[in-house]
Amino acid sequence: MTPSNSNSRAILLMHCPDQKGIIAVVTNFLSENNGNIIDLDEHVDPEYKTFFMRVEWDLSYFKIPVDQINKKFRQLIGNQYKMNWSLHFTDKVPRMAVFVSKLSHCLYDILSRYQSGEWKAEIPLIISNHQVLEVVAHRFDIDFKHFPIDKNNKPEQEQRQLQMLKDYKIDFIVLARYMQIVSTEFISNYPNKIINIHHSFLPAFPGARPYHSAYARGVKIIGASSHYVTAELDAGPIIEQEVVRVSHKDSVKTLVRKGQDLEKIVLSRAIWNHLERKILVFNNRTIIFE
Amino acid sequence: MTPSNSNSRAILLMHCPDQKGIIAVVTNFLSENNGNIIDLDEHVDPEYKTFFMRVEWDLSYFKIPVDQINKKFRQLIGNQYKMNWSLHFTDKVPRMAVFVSKLSHCLYDILSRYQSGEWKAEIPLIISNHQVLEVVAHRFDIDFKHFPIDKNNKPEQEQRQLQMLKDYKIDFIVLARYMQIVSTEFISNYPNKIINIHHSFLPAFPGARPYHSAYARGVKIIGASSHYVTAELDAGPIIEQEVVRVSHKDSVKTLVRKGQDLEKIVLSRAIWNHLERKILVFNNRTIIFE
Amino acid sequence: MTPSNSNSRAILLMHCPDQKGIIAVVTNFLSENNGNIIDLDEHVDPEYKTFFMRVEWDLSYFKIPVDQINKKFRQLIGNQYKMNWSLHFTDKVPRMAVFVSKLSHCLYDILSRYQSGEWKAEIPLIISNHQVLEVVAHRFDIDFKHFPIDKNNKPEQEQRQLQMLKDYKIDFIVLARYMQIVSTEFISNYPNKIINIHHSFLPAFPGARPYHSAYARGVKIIGASSHYVTAELDAGPIIEQEVVRVSHKDSVKTLVRKGQDLEKIVLSRAIWNHLERKILVFNNRTIIFE
Amino acid sequence: MTPSNSNSRAILLMHCPDQKGIIAVVTNFLSENNGNIIDLDEHVDPEYKTFFMRVEWDLSYFKIPVDQINKKFRQLIGNQYKMNWSLHFTDKVPRMAVFVSKLSHCLYDILSRYQSGEWKAEIPLIISNHQVLEVVAHRFDIDFKHFPIDKNNKPEQEQRQLQMLKDYKIDFIVLARYMQIVSTEFISNYPNKIINIHHSFLPAFPGARPYHSAYARGVKIIGASSHYVTAELDAGPIIEQEVVRVSHKDSVKTLVRKGQDLEKIVLSRAIWNHLERKILVFNNRTIIFE
User: Fold this and answer.
1) Residue C6: which pLDDT band, with cuts at 50, 70 and 90?
2) Does C170 share its domain with C26?
3) C24–D27 C-beta distance less than 8 A
4) Active site residue ranges of D
5) By residue range, what is the domain housing residue D204?
6) So what's the pLDDT on residue D210?
7) Looking at the predicted structure, is the pLDDT value of residue B128 above 60?
């Protein structure tokens, strides 16, 4: 048999009201069209009686042409089962923009992974409200754009940023310790496509200066949380969290030092899951398929 | 429709050579017979090209009578796909024997979970080579049998133990810090049905006195490991592990104190997974379905 | 030389404004009186410029009689250095009362440690607003007192409890998932002597039903926190916290199951540190000496 | 009073046979000479009856000139108490060389910390047996020297390396996934001054390909370990370890990906402790002062 598609894979992320036989229906659809399933993970939320599934299959001998899969799936399954779904192809490399302020640890971590080929992604653009990290961007030969922001120019600067993101064909945005609150309107252009790292174990200590708050409260463990940005500050769906043990011996300064290691690891895990299309958002919570 | 089976669920654990369409085949079989899938988790080992799956379904309206499911499955699927499988029913409560020596922490933990109804299990029998913990057994109204073991009487004592396990209709055995090595012959009566807790982070420090070894080596983290018992000492398939941070300030005595908390938690998680039929053993490794 | 004191040790917990030479002064005092230091741990809070120290020494050859140490220390050091301190002796075994409601996991864990001799403590009394766990108390031959509490009788029941605690010579109280809010007046009788376990990673999810809140927020890690009880609910100084990773697959029910393992471990570590006199409270934070 | 020394601090690391009054002797010495103690941490190993201490003090008003402290300490205390000690000054910035092969993750992590000013260290030199990472060195403007090594030229190449380390005035060496075994003779030039990162939870899986071994053994947790290099492979004193949970779903490839995050964090924590003079080696174990 001649491969009808390129040597890549397709990923289907779906959710719908739970109903008998739904896995059989989808796996039959793939099986009958010569799609070899590489990975399948499903989940049923018993409270909301909702079915979730991620299925990844080899396109080498898949009978349906790539540009018709979506249509066929809608006709045969999607409509009938009242399904929400998205279809992705692994040979399409997502383009990511990084927003930063003055702290470099997350940016360096992102760029070193990018450079080593750990991620299937393009990073053509770094945006910042300060110029401090321009030198880092140049070190890695990535375009750096400076958008100084104050309370007066914010709306117009965001409009200019949006235009630039469009020009650079950006698929998703990473706020790598970008110390600005992004407007609801800006967010609406990238729903579940802006990943933030917050330097606390959410929902504890949202907002500014969480390490100071953690110190004052005397917690014995601190954390970091990555989440998709939504209109409410630090309240979007959590993608990943990690923690580290601290003690009374830690000052705010050492909490910051220990916490920054968490921040970069947690942010990079969130980016990884996003790139691998392993995340589904439902009711402000994430399902992270493994 | 009248329910043809009791209000329980069936669990199928299976593995076979990986092949296209296998999930569709199994889910169709259940769907066509009115079996509503509660939970499905699958895994493919790319190295061994082997497919693993655990599927749990509601028997309420399942068309095939409980005592014929196994036969039907063999005829329709098992033989054709060269499958290894086991079938379990949630209304069959497993019977567990606990083997102990002198340390009480794991035994108390097991009995308190049993007593609180956390586990769907029966514990009719505690066996020991010492009499120290008889008082604990009596406190919980459980039969306690004393089998003193020395190097001369071991074979005959094990024979008597096996007979007693048979009399008590024991399904699986938990070695809760039972400080005796169990013979290969004894093990062969309960393959993948004897759960041991070893007080180290295996494969580091197998055998006797692992806390002393951990102290001497100066590790910064200690662990505990639960595994199925096989002929080779402390080398059986690992079910669960957990760790805790230690420091130079810890003596062997405090390592023991910290480690015992790990031991009871790790052992109880292994028992939970065993009871829930979430474990499949392949090539001396476990697949733990979630 | 003849030992002038029993074969026990003394522990001094102290804090005072930080000042040059303070460690030398205290260690000289002990050294000159033939007190061999077993353990010394100090801490300086640079923000509050406050010095904290725990020192434990062997009394075998200590020249000052046990009943005069406090007075001598005040005269020679305490007054001059504006010190707050408390003096403890390891041969005085603390007496602990456990308050419970209906959940048994923490109680069993406490009693099994008590029974195995892990703790140097006496547990003569269990108090509950329900009768469910009376059977557990009887199993371990410990007095169980039932104080049903409703919104009308609370003040008088607390008065009766206080009298009973006095009769039993109770030194400190452990709230082992006691689902009642204790009044400010009650607390004032046992300042920094009531240890509570809260089933969340404080300050996230204080108050009722934290596992439900954790589920709704979609956190990826849950926790448990032990703290001294103060007038403000779940806001007292944190003694110990621990966490466990969860996922979207966890229901509230499995969060509860996983969380209960944390609760008992975290509570027991707090009790251990309290018994070992390793805790100093300052500004609603704890210093935990190692 | 006029400060007799620069605005820096001194650190004394010491160990000796445990004896009564030793803390008082040292703290008196500092106190009498106007040295304000910033931090003191001590430890007694009860098995070896050995006393360990790290004390850090402000030199601003210290009466003894910096270049005479060592001599004075020897005369007054060191000799009499049979002490081993080392004296360090915080205004002396250590110089570090990094050895790498082809993997970049640890190197990038080190350089991003260096660049951000997280560490008080100089990194003038990167040495490698391959040229792959030369581009990274250039990006950060650091000298890169290529020493290709095969089984024939190893002794002479190591001699050349040693000469170069001398020329660059290197104080200590970090093997950041340098995939070569360093000779005993080379090590003898930098005793407890070569830090290695091993990609397993030692003592499990020493030597080559630990992720493959971890996969084959089916462990549920993997780790990374940093240690000082000694003659015996991967058996030197452990400085720091960290772990991450894995499952049957992880291939060797994903174990590598998860493990590399551990490696860089664990290595950087070890470097931090080394730079802060918080490590004392005794009997092939480390005491890490906090």
Assistant:
1) low
2) no
3) yes
4) 234
5) 95-288
6) 97
7) yes
Looking at the structure, do residues C110 and C228 belong to the same domain, yes or no?
A: yes
Token digits for C36?
A: 């061999």
The one-character DSSP state at D183 is P
Q: What is the distance in angstroms between the Cα of C208 and the nearest Cα belonging to chain A?
A: 16
Same domain, C127 and C25: no
CB distance from A224 to chain D under 8 Å?
A: no
Instruction: For residues B52 and B114, state if they share a domain.
Output: no
Place of tokens 């393992």: C261
- pLDDT tens for residues A88-127? 999 999 999 999 999 999 999 999 999 999 999 999 999 9
Q: Which CATH number does the domain housing residue D24 bear?
A: 3.30.70.260
- Residue D1 falls inside a structural domain: no
Q: Are residues C131 and C200 in the same domain?
A: yes
The answer to whether the beta carbons of residues D121 and D96 sit under 8 Å apart is yes
* Partners of residue C224 on adjacent β-strands: C242
Q: What pLDDT does residue D3 have?
A: 44
The verdict on residue C16 lying in a domain is yes
Structure tokens at B115: 């007593």
Indicate if C125 and C149 belong to the same structural domain.
Answer: yes
Last residue of a domain, one of C58, C89, C120: C89
Q: Nearest Cα to D101, choosing from D182, D179, D162?
A: D179
**Nearby residues of C119 by Cβ (< 8 Å), 6 or more positions away:** C113, C271, C272, C275
- C160 located within any domain: yes
Tell me the one-letter amino acid at B2: T
How far is C-alpha A10 from the chain's CA centre?
Answer: 18
Q: Which long-range contacts (CB under 8 A, 24 or more apart) does B187-194 make?
A: B187/B229, B187/B230, B187/B231, B189/B162, B189/B165, B192/B228, B192/B237, B192/B279, B192/B281, B193/B228, B194/B228, B194/B229
Q: How many domains does chain C have?
A: 2
Is the pLDDT at B2 greater than 60? The verdict is no
* B154-162 long-range Cβ contacts below 8 angstroms, 24+ apart: B154/B183, B155/B183, B158/B182, B158/B183, B158/B185, B158/B186, B161/B127, B161/B186, B162/B186, B162/B189
Distance from CA of B141 to the nearest CA of D (A): 36
pLDDT in tens, C129-160: 999 999 999 999 999 999 999 989 999 999 99
Q: Could you confirm whether B234 is annotated as catalytic?
A: yes
Pick the closest to residue D241 from D256, D262, D255 (CA basis).
D262
Q: Order of strands across the sheet with C36-45?
A: C84-89, C9-17, C50-58, C36-45, D36-45, D50-58, D9-17, D84-89
C248 in reach of chain B (CB within 8 A) = no
| C23 with D21: Cβ contact below 8 A | no
Closest alpha carbon to C164 in C139, C146, C187, C183: C146
Same domain? For D138 and D175 the reply is yes
Please answer yes or no on whether D220 and B241 come within 8 Å at the CB atom.
yes
Q: What token pair was written down for D79? A: 């000799």
Q: Is there a domain that residue D4 lies in?
A: no
Strand residues in A150-237 grouped as ranges (E): 172-175, 194-198, 221-228
Q: Among residues A71, A89, A107, which one ends one of the domains? A: A89
From the list D111, D257, D290, the residue facing A249 with the nearest CB is: D290
Clarify whether residues A178 and A72 are in a common domain.
no
The CATH number of residue C213's host domain is 3.40.50.170
Confidence band, pLDDT 50/70/90 cuts, at residue D88: very high
Chain D contact for B281 (CB, 8 A cutoff)? no
Min Cα–Cα distance to chain D from B209, Å: 15
Cα–Cα distance between C64 and B99 in angstroms, integer?
A: 52
Distance of CA C59 to the CA centre of its chain: 25
Mean of pLDDT over chain C: 95
> How many CB atoms lie under 10 A from the CB of residue C11?
19
ipTM of the complex: 0.94
Tell how many helices (H) and how many strands (E) occur in chain A: 8, 13
Are C281 and C230 in contact by the 8 Å Cβ rule? The answer is: no
